[in-house]
């Protein structure tokens, strides 16, 4: 890309999105950031602008404020636990594609990065419901006419120190991270590594379009 990133970030009131936002605020390759949230993220920074919008299925009221950006880090997502396939598809596939279609209308030269998940099913035929839906989302995003479309597939994630929006169950399982990171390194990375990999892939225009944990860790070592 070789121009500083003018980013739109979604999901910054969630654990992954908040961690990605914190890294982007500090990274010199990022020039400005627009966060689009349902609720205030609680951060203030010279790079940062925030739009509060409740309905991600209808973006007409804020469309004009979404132009002038060259990248989107889509970190908004929901857990599939307790959800049927129809509802999970609506909140994962339909919502994401609606946001992506709106952005592409207003930004002709935009790179779109989607936070997916380890073991996502690219063939869309497996037994795991969430993996099929994530796979369809990845596939259809990559068919769109973005400058680049990337899917990032992290496994277990280590939050960034000082994060406010850490999932409650991490209080009980967070101690497992260093063990998994050593014994099964292909299943664990930090949110800081994930965010750095997203920045590097977008700025340098990676030839890969899907990033597993090993790819995320490798990219995170690249100097700005």
Main sheet: strands, sense, barrel = 7 strands, parallel
Query: Helix count?
Result: 7
Distance between the termini: 13 Å
Please state the CA-atom Rg, rounded to the nearest Å.
16 Å
Q: Which structural category fits the helices and strands?
A: alpha/beta
Which runs of at least 5 residues are low in confidence (pLDDT < 50)? none
**Approximate shape:** globular
- List the helices and strands in order: EHEEEHEHEEHHEHEH
Fraction in beta strands: 15-25%
Strand adjacency order, main sheet: 3-2-1-4-5-6-9
Helix content: 25-40%
Instruction: Give the overall average pLDDT.
Output: 95
In total, the number of strands is: 9
Question: How is this structure best described in words?
Answer:
The chain is built from 7 helices and 9 strands. The chain is globular. Helix 1 (15-26) packs across helix 6 (191-204), helix 2 packs parallel to helix 3 and helix 6 packs across helix 7. The longest helix is centred in the middle third of the chain and has 22 residues, at 85-106. The chain starts with a strand and ends with a helix. By secondary structure, it is α/β, with parallel strands linked by helices. Strand 1 (5-10), helix 1 and strand 2 form a beta-alpha-beta unit. The mean pLDDT is 95. The protein has helices at 15-26, 85-106, 129-143, 170-173, 177-183, 191-204, 213-220, and strands spanning 5-10, 30-37, 48-52, 71-74, 111-115, 148-152, 156-158, 188-190, 210-211. 37% of the residues lie in helices and 18% in strands. The strands form 2 sheets. Strands 3-2-1-4-5-6-9 form a 7-stranded parallel beta sheet, with helices on both faces. A two-stranded parallel ribbon has the order 7-8.
